[in-house]
Design a protein that fits this description.
The chain is an alpha/beta fold. About 45% of the residues lie in helices and about 15% in strands. Bound molecules: farnesyl diphosphate. The site of farnesyl diphosphate has 18 residues, from helix 1, helix 2 and helix 3.
């Protein structure tokens, strides 16, 4: 039986969720943050799941209207400040991926603080992808190792990436069927699940069902079984 050790989620549909309720997009993001909390706590209680990577802000998301970007930054800061207690209680280690240098000093400080305070936790790793894009991650990795005297190996490149773990299962909510520059290296053999559910409506029951379906798939990694 397959075990979903590393699950990654493209959390899409916050804006449409708000629009359906005739609310501002910000309300959709707030509701989305509540889903982040519920899904993270569920994963922390599942012994098979070691890592949960969530696409929270992409390198392309800066193109959104300034007010929305500012709102997302404030929401993230508030989320991390409020959540520290729950990370510690649930033994969750927080490990951001992405190029954090683009964020304000204050947000960088909060991110670093939560990372340091949870570094000893050895339960679930919750990895938020922040100013993350797979192309950017791979380019930064290549630039770190390009002066090596030896030929670059798969191991060398993997170790230079922000996320060094292959992903088993990628879920995208919101109905679109694309990877949007998310974990392209790590997803080489990932199973992909797409659901029309908008992220704020995504439940632990639906996640449980996806994981159940995943466990039944025969994964061959290019070989025969
Ligand atoms: C996509 O919805 C979602 C995002 C741009 C980022 C995800 C953000 C959250 C889940 C909220 C905050 C997260 C944390 C960790 C506090 P969309 O706006 O693209 O939705 P749409 O496609 O319906 O417009």
């Amino acid at each position: 039986m397959n075990r979903a050790r590393h699950i990654a989620i493209i959390m899409d549909g916050n804006g449409r969720w708000a629009k359906l309720r005739e609310q501002k997009r910000a309300k959709g993001h707030e509701a989305g943050a509540k889903t982040v909390r519920a899904i993270t706590e569920f994963c922390s209680r599942n012994e098979d799941i070691q890592r949960l990577t969530l696409y929270a802000f992409s390198t392309e998301n800066w193109k959104r209207p300034t007010l929305e970007v500012e709102f997302l930054m404030k929401l993230l800061q508030k989320y991390l400040e409020n959540e520290l207690e729950s990370y510690l209680q649930n033994n969750i280690r927080f490990e951001p991926i992405g190029d954090l240098r683009a964020f304000s000093k204050s947000l960088q400080h909060t991110i670093q603080n939560v990372k340091e305070k949870t570094a000893h936790c050895d339960g679930l790793v919750q990895s938020l992808a922040l100013n993350y894009g797979a192309h950017d991650e791979i380019l930064r990795a290549i630039n770190k190792i390009k002066n090596s005297q030896e030929s670059i190996t798969k191991e060398m490149l993997t170790n230079a990436l922000d996320c060094k773990d292959d992903v088993d299962l990628i879920i995208r909510t919101g109905g679109d069927k694309r990877l949007s520059n998310f974990l392209l290296w790590q997803a080489a053999y990932a199973e992909l699940f797409f659901t029309d559910t908008l992220w704020p409506d995504f439940t632990t029951d639906e996640l449980e069902k996806i994981i159940k379906d995943f466990t039944k798939i025969e994964r061959k990694f290019g070989g025969l079984k």
